Amino acid sequence: xxxxxxxxxxxxxxxxxxATPRITLYFLQxxxxxxxxxLLEELGLPYxxxxxxxxxxxxxxxxxxxxGNPLGKFPTIRDGDEVIYESGNIVEYLxxxxxxxxxxxxxxxxxxxxxxxxxxxxxxxxxxxxxxxxYARWSFPAELKESxxxxxxxxxxxxxxxxxxxxxxLELELSRSTGSFLAGNTVTAADCMMLFSVQFIFARELxxxxxxxxxxxxxxxxxxxxxxxxxxxxxKSGHAL
Length: 241
Known about the structure:
Layout: H1 3-12, E1 23-28, H2 33-43, E2 47-52, H3 61-67, E3 76-79, E4 82-85, H4 87-98, H5 109-139, H6 142-147, H7 151-176, H8 189-203, H9 215-225, H10 228-237
Parallel strand pairs: 1-2
Antiparallel strand pairs: 1-3, 3-4
């Protein structure tokens, strides 16, 4: 499914006078970094991985120092002398610079708009609503858990409304897709961005209680995880939720 993008890349760099890109992906375990590893595999680009496990749920200082990202967040990539961060920005940067076949972000208006909608919804809609549930769990005062054990449950129930609306929307969009993936029969940047958000919500049960079912989302996740490029990204990066 990724032959067109890979062939385009190799054609571009078949001239020995062109320098092969020097891309380093700074990869924090169980993070959005897998989006970029998968995209790089889809583009057929060579890259190195600087990997780190979390320390008390946070990125180790050594990885922050190496990446040179002033926010100290991941993923971050270094492409030559350029440091790029924020996963949506990295996706657009890599596609604009290296995807000369326009396989990941199409040039035609309708599919391009659809793909970019998912690129932004991955963070601006799904992730933000899922993380609201997670942060409520993390920050809920211990004394309230004892005095009012159902309070957190009620908070999560309220926050779950947005998460379930998001998943209902994604289920509908998958039913409208003309192929097996979000924007047709091949993986695009839409899938690379959206997959982690949905996996994370399901894995941590962030607002999913008493929601669904979402059979098309389940099928889509399996198709994405079955892609050779995704498996290679997992193997090379060491990603695990």
